[in-house]
């Protein structure tokens, strides 16, 4: 299975390195993506928006179709989950499953996060004090230092541009949510109560929610467990 790994804010394709070997060892072909504006040292972020990232994913989905007729799996961490879901909306027949790592898809018309501190056209990795305690579980001092060393600024447009969704066939694509900093019961309750932010989840025909208790960056804090959870989602 071709697996496209979409990083969340402040991370590039190399951030998936702790889990790609396990995916490959299970017979899959991982494609860790570095999205536009997120290459190390890149400074020209103006004009890069959420749709830019979605289109970059679609370019790879389409290119793989020319050599492999089977649908692909999209794995999106954090904000990458919304990017993956928008790609599934654009190519529902080409996506076998979306796996959202500590991520929930934003409804149409909503930005991923327009409340983070901005510097020009960039959203740098903020100070740790701006995160919730649940985000930082298991992220010890050494991992925080490593994260900050590999972090790249997120293009402002990716955080602020509203999500575009058009094709209701996206709801036929199977989805697995790997819940790390929030319990599965909270998500299910939000669906049952008709909460607006859970609207996309409520309409999904095939939704699994599994728990991997840790902070918001399991590829750093629990990479082996994250790899196993992704493999279970794909193969199970």
Q: What are its keywords?
A:
236 residues, alpha/beta, Rossmann fold, six-stranded parallel sheet, two-stranded antiparallel ribbon, 15% strand, globular
Can you put this structure into words, describing what you see?
The chain has helices at 17-25, 50-65, 79-90, 141-150, 156-160, 184-192, 199-203, 218-221, 223-235, and strands at 2-6, 29-32, 72-77, 95-101, 122-123, 154-155, 175-179, 207-211. The longest helix is centred in the first third of the chain and has 16 residues, at 50-65. The two termini are 13 Å apart. The radius of gyration is 16 Å and the shape is globular. 42% of the residues are buried. The protein has one domain (2-235): Alpha/Beta hydrolase fold, catalytic domain (Rossmann fold), CATH 3.40.50.1820. The mean pLDDT is 97. Helix 1 (17-25) packs across helix 9. With 236 residues, the chain is of the alpha/beta class. A six-stranded parallel beta sheet has the order 2-1-3-4-7-8, with helices on both faces. Strands 5-6 form a two-stranded antiparallel ribbon. It has nine helices and eight strands.
Give a brief description:
This protein is an alpha/beta fold.
How is this fold's topology laid out?
Layout (H helix, E strand, L loop, with lengths): L1 E5 L10 H9 L3 E4 L17 H16 L6 E6 L1 H12 L4 E7 L20 E2 L17 H10 L3 E2 H5 L14 E5 L4 H9 L6 H5 L3 E5 L6 H4 L1 H13 L1
Parallel strand pairs: 1-2, 1-3, 3-4, 4-7, 7-8
Antiparallel strand pairs: 5-6
Helix pairs in contact: 1-9, 2-3
